[in-house]
C-alpha cells in the first residue's frame, strides 16, 4: 500500500525514449504558462462525460505542494503531500474535482469539504515514483450516465482513477454532475515553484482501459485515433514560439487544421523551452567548464542543470536554472558525493530562477568575494540556498505588496564587515543583498529572512531579543524584526522588513542604535512637506536631522528636531519643510538620528510627488515684532484663511476671510515661523519667515 493507493496492475516498465518522443516543453519559476483555448466548447462538452487525460512529466525533488500541471474551471492536477502507511509525509500527484453539491455516496460530507468554503471535492491521487526523470500519468473518469453497462478495466461507472507508469491507484468516486464550467479552456503549468517538463499530452473523449493506457504509454500515437480530442507532442515547435497546434485528426477531433484547442503562451518571465530533453548532471567533482564534470558536454546557458557533485567556477557563469539533486535519488547513484556544493570562487553565478533543492549539504558557496545573482524571484517569496565554506546560511526573499518578479545579488560571509567590537552581542555571520530590479516610485518593502547556526552565536548573544541590523550610510541600525524561529536541529531564522540594502547581521545589542523609529510618513500642503514620525528608546539621544534630496543620492539638511525628553516612551514628531521654489518632480526625505556621542543611523527613505507652485512671498523678512508684513502672491488673496505656525507645529495666530496683502503681526516671541494661507480654491501656500 502506498500513500495514495494500492498498486493494482503490473504494466511494462516506463520507457520515455527521447528518440521516439523527440521534443518536450519545459517550464521554470515564472508566470509563463500555456492556455489551450476552448472557444467552441469542445472540452466543456467532453469533460461532461467520460474522459482520459495522459501525459509524461519530469519534476525535481524540490517540487512544492500546489504546483499545477493542468487546471480548468472545476478541476486541478497538482502536486501535494500525503501520509503513507508509516505516517510519513510523501509527495504525490492529485486529481481534484470541485463540486457545489455533496455526493450521495459519501458517508460523511464534511470529510470532502474545502475548509472555509461552501464547496466539496472528489479526489484520486498517487505517490510520485521518483524525481528528475520522466514518469507517465493517466487520469480516467468514467461517468455512469454515459455508455451504461460498459466499464473499462478497473474503472467502474461513476468512478475515477489515476495511473502512474501504468499502475492504478485506488478507485474513487467521480462527480455525478457535470464538470463545467471549463472557463474557456485548459491551463498548463499556470502556478508552479520549480521547473517541470511535460510531453505527449493526450486528451480522450472516452474512459481508456488500463491495458490501453500501459500498452501505448511508451509509444507515440497516431493522431487519427478515435475519441482523441486533443494531442500535443510538442515536436517541431520553434524556440520562443507562442502557439501550439492541436495535432488530433481522428473521429472525435474538433477540427482538421489544429486551430481548435490550440495552445497559446501567456504571462511574464522566461518563455517555456521547446526542444529535446537532455539531462545535465554533474557526474564528478571538478570545474564547471570541464566537460568531464558533466559526462562529456558542458551545458549551455539556457539549460537547467542538476548538481550531484561539487563544482567550482573558473569564470562568471549564467545558467537558466539549477537544481540540487535530493539525497533520495543520490542514494541510488553509485559514487554520488555526500556534499553537492557550487563554489563561486571569486566569480559571479547568475541563474534565471531561484535554485531549488538546497539544504545544509547542497548550496552555493560565495567564497573569495564571489556572489550569486538570482533573477525572477517571485514576489510571493523564495529561499536562496547560499552559505560559506563552513556553514549553510540561506536567505528567503519576498515582496508581499508586490506583483512582479525581482532580482537580487547576494553573498554570505563568516565575518562581519564593517567590523563590530568584540563585546558586541551578535551572530558571527553577515549577508550582503542588493536588489537589481529598479523600484517604481516609493522603494518597496521586502521581507528578508536570515538563517544561522547555534555555533555562530557569541556567548553574550540572546535569541529572545534578537534583531536584524543593517549597515547603511556609515552606521549599523536595527530593523523592525519578528521573533526568532527554529528550523529544527541547531539552526534559527529571523525575518525583517527591509527598504535599504547593504550588509546585514543578527544582533541582540541595541546600543549602536540611538533611537528606534516606529513610524515615518510624509504629506504635502501647498509648498510645504509635512513629515510625521514616532520614536522610542530615546535615552542618550541628541537630535533628528531632516534631510531632503531630489534624487535619493545627494542630500541636504532641511532642518533639525531635538528630542523633548529622554526615556523609552513613544514620542511623536511633526516637521514642516517649506520646499524651496523651483523644485519639481519627486522629493525624497530621510531622518538622520544622532546620539549624544554623534553616532547615528538613518530612517527608511520616504518620497512624495512634487509639482512646483507659484511662490508665496513675505516681506520684510526678517520682520520686527508686532510690525506689518506684506504678502506677495500672483493675483493676491480674497476670502482666504491665514495662519502663523511655530516650527513645533503650534498655531499662534489665525485670521479668516483674509483679503489683500497686509498682515499686522500679533505679539508673539521672536523666532522662525511658517505663514500658511489657504486660498478660496482650497490650495495651501506656505512660506517661512523670521521675527526678531
CATH fold field value of the largest domain: Jelly Rolls
Number of domains: 4
Q: Could you tell me the strand content as a percent range?
A: 35-45%
The level-1 CATH class of the largest domain: Mainly Beta
* Helix and strand composition category: mainly beta
Any idea what the radius of gyration is? 33 Å
Distance between the termini: 92 Å
Uncertain parts: 1-9, 145-151, 328-336
How would you summarize this macromolecular structure in one to three sentences?
By secondary structure, this protein is an all-beta fold. It folds into four domains: 21-276, Jelly Rolls, CATH 2.60.120; 286-507, no CATH class; 516-610, Immunoglobulin-like; 617-691, Sandwich (Immunoglobulin-like).
Amino acid at each position: 500500500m502506498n500513500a495514495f493507493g494500492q498498486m493494482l496492475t503490473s504494466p511494462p516498465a516506463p520507457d520515455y525514449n527521447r528518440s521516439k518522443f523527440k521534443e518536450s516543453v519545459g517550464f521554470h519559476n515564472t508566470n509563463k504558462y500555456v492556455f489551450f483555448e476552448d472557444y467552441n466548447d469542445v472540452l466543456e462538452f467532453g469533460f461532461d462525460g467520460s474522459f482520459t487525460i495522459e501525459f509524461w512529466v519530469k519534476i525535481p525533488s524540490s517540487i512544492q505542494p500546489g504546483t499545477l500541471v493542468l487546471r480548468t474551471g472545476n478541476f486541478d492536477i497538482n502536486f501535494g503531500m500525503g501520509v503513507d502507511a508509516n505516517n510519513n509525509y510523501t509527495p504525490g500527484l492529485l486529481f481534484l474535482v470541485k463540486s457545489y453539491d455533496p455526493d450521495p455516496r459519501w458517508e460523511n460530507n464534511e470529510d470532502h469539504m474545502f475548509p472555509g468554503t461552501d464547496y466539496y471535492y472528489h479526489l484520486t491521487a498517487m505517490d510520485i515514483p521518483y524525481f528528475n526523470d520522466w514518469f507517465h500519468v493517466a487520469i480516467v473518469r468514467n461517468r455512469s450516465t454515459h455508455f451504461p453497462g460498459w466499464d473499462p478495466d478497473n474503472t467502474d461507472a461513476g468512478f475515477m482513477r489515476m495511473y502512474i507508469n501504468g499502475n492504478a491507484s485506488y478507485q474513487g468516486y467521480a462527480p455525478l454532475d457535470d464538470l463545467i464550467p471549463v472557463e474557456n479552456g485548459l491551463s498548463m503549468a499556470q502556478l508552479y515553484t520549480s521547473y517541470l517538463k511535460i510531453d505527449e499530452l493526450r486528451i480522450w473523449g472516452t474512459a481508456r482501459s488500463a491495458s490501453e493506457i500501459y500498452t501505448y504509454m511508451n509509444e507515440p500515437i497516431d493522431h487519427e485515433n478515435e475519441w482523441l480530442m486533443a494531442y500535443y507532442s510538442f515536436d517541431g515547435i520553434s524556440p520562443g514560439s507562442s502557439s501550439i497546434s492541436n495535432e488530433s485528426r481522428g473521429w472525435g477531433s474538433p477540427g482538421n487544421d489544429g486551430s481548435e484547442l490550440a495552445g497559446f503562451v501567456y504571462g511574464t518571465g522566461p518563455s517555456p523551452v521547446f526542444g529535446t530533453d537532455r539531462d545535465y548532471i554533474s557526474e564528478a567533482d571538478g570545474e564547471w567548464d570541464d566537460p568531464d564534470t558533466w559526462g562529456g558536454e558542458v551545458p549551455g546557458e539556457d539549460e537547467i542543470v542538476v548538481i550531484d557533485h561539487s563544482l567550482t567556477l573558473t569564470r562568471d557563469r549564467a545558467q537558466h536554472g539549477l537544481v540540487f539533486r535530493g539525497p533520495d535519488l543520490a542514494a541510488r547513484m553509485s559514487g554520488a558525493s555526500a556534499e553537492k556544493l557550487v563554489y563561486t570562487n571569486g566569480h559571479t553565478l547568475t541563474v534565471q530562477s531561484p535554485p531549488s533543492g538546497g539544504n545544509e549539504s547542497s548550496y552555493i558557496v560565495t567564497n573569495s568575494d564571489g556572489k550569486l545573482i538570482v533573477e525572477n524571484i517571485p514576489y510571493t517569496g523564495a529561499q536562496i540556498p547560499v552559505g560559506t565554506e563552513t556553514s549553510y546560511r540561506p536567505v528567503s526573499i519576498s515582496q508581499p505588496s508586490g506583483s512582479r518578479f525581482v532580482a537580487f545579488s547576494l553573498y554570505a560571509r563568516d565575518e562581519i564587515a564593517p567590523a563590530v567590537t568584540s563585546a558586541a552581542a551578535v551572530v558571527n555571520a553577515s549577508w550582503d543583498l542588493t536588489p537589481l530590479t529598479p523600484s517604481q516610485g516609493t522603494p518597496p518593502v521586502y521581507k528578508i529572512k536570515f538563517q544561522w547556526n547555534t555555533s555562530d552565536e557569541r556567548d553574550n548573544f540572546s535569541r529572545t531579543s534578537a534583531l536584524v541590523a543593517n549597515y547603511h550610510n556609515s552606521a549599523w541600525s536595527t530593523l523592525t524584526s519578528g521573533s526568532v524561529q527554529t528550523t529544527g536541529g541547531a539552526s534559527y531564522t529571523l525575518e525583517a522588513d527591509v527598504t535599504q540594502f547593504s550588509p546585514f547581521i543578527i544582533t541582540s545589542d541595541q546600543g549602536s542604535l540611538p533611537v528606534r523609529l516606529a513610524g515615518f510618513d510624509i504629506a504635502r500642503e501647498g509648498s510645504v512637506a509635512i513629515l510625521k514620525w514616532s520614536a522610542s528608546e530615546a535615552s542618550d539621544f541628541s537630535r533628528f536631522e531632516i534631510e531632503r534630496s531630489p534624487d535619493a543620492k545627494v542630500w541636504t539638511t532641511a532642518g533639525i528636531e531635538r528630542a523633548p525628553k529622554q526615556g523609552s516612551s513613544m514620542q511623536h514628531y511633526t516637521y514642516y519643510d517649506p520646499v524651496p521654489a523651483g523644485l519639481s518632480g519627486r522629493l525624497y526625505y530621510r531622518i538622520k538620528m544622532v546620539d549624544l556621542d554623534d553616532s547615528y543611523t538613518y530612517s527608511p527613505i520616504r518620497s512624495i510627488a512634487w509639482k512646483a507652485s507659484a511662490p508665496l512671498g513675505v516681506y520684510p523678512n526678517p520682520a520686527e515684532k508686532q510690525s506689518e508684513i506684506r504678502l506677495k502672491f500672483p493675483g493676491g488673496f480674497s476670502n482666504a484663511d491665514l495662519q502663523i505656525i511655530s516650527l513645533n507645529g503650534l498655531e499662534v495666530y489665525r485670521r479668516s476671510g483674509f483679503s489683500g496683502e497686509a498682515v499686522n503681526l500679533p505679539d508673539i516671541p521672536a523666532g522662525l515661523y511658517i505663514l500658511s494661507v489657504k486660498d478660496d480654491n482650497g490650495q495651501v501656500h506656505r512660506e517661512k519667515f523670521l521675527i526678531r
